[in-house]
Request: fold
Amino acid sequence: MPNMLHANGRAVVIRAIRIALVCGFLVMIGRHYHAGLGFTELLILAEDGHVFETPALQAIPHYHHPSGNSYDGQYYVQLALDPLLKDPRLDRSMDNPPYRERRILFSWTAWLMGLGRPAWIVQAYAVQNVVVWLLLAWWLARRYPADDWRGLAVWIAMMFTHGLLASVRMALLDGPSLLVIALAVTLSERGRPIASALLVGIGGLGRETNLLAAAALGGTLAKPRRPWLTIVVGAFLIVAPLALWLDYLRSIFRDTVLTSGGSVTWPLTVLADQWWMIARAGLRGLPRHWGHAVALLSLTVQAVYLAARARPRDPWWRLGIAYAVLLVSVTPAVWEGDPGAATRSLLPLTLAFNLLLPSTRSFWAWLLAGNLTTLLAWRTLA
Reply:
């Protein structure tokens, strides 16, 4: 009885900590609300880019950042206003139309959330990542016992990692992509290979790299009584959604649909350059962009951990190692900035790493080393 009471008390404390942190997150998001404009500050639209906005977006009151301060969310919100790309003026609002328009999924979900009404769609796209963050918080909390301190530590590390918060702050595709992948692997864990394959395929419409989640499904697809049939059907469901959408885009862009937006290069070359750059900066003192160094160290630790502790039968390990391969293959553009897009693009690696942390004494050392980007949490939401 005393042990049960102690566990119950611990569970109450852990639940209270989670609630307090969720409230803190929502308060920080609330600071970006503006009367009459809603949460459109999160879209990162610049005042000097107003002329490149479609008439549909121009007609809706929205927040403008100072000149030169814009980011990718500005493109996807405009896609949400025209989810079938019927307005030829949409192309002029894009920096790279074929590349952006391949990633249509979360523009579609914003259109659905906004019930097809332009003003609602814009707000829906702006807060979509906030909803996703809350869903991920609930999903991750359910994976650990209510009275588990280590589970709480993993929850905090994952929910306040830089990549996830940056996706929220700039209304990007990475957080929603992570939710789709997490749900797909969960279905795989529960022995539902067809449903998980279909979800991975749908996720490919959000980002092409989301299809790497197929690596997590390998063991599940081969388990049913008719493994070859399941594998064939699963493989079809994984590739079909993106293939159909690309065919639709080809009817618009012809041969240019696959000619832009490459994000991988020769393995290890760019990663080695990044470490060399940080090492040289370290010789001159603390790097000016220390966030970049923190991100590079954290992601490298995550990849090293998964490579050193192979668990090929575990779907989370297979997911993580697939994204570890992506880590060593991304182009320099992914590392540009402080800390850059790498923490967002490799969120599945971070999730797999945290879920696979050992239950031994080394747990805390690995947790801290692999999650240093949580130091950037509140700065990211500011």
In short: The two ends are 46 Å apart (CA to CA). The chain has a mean pLDDT of 90.
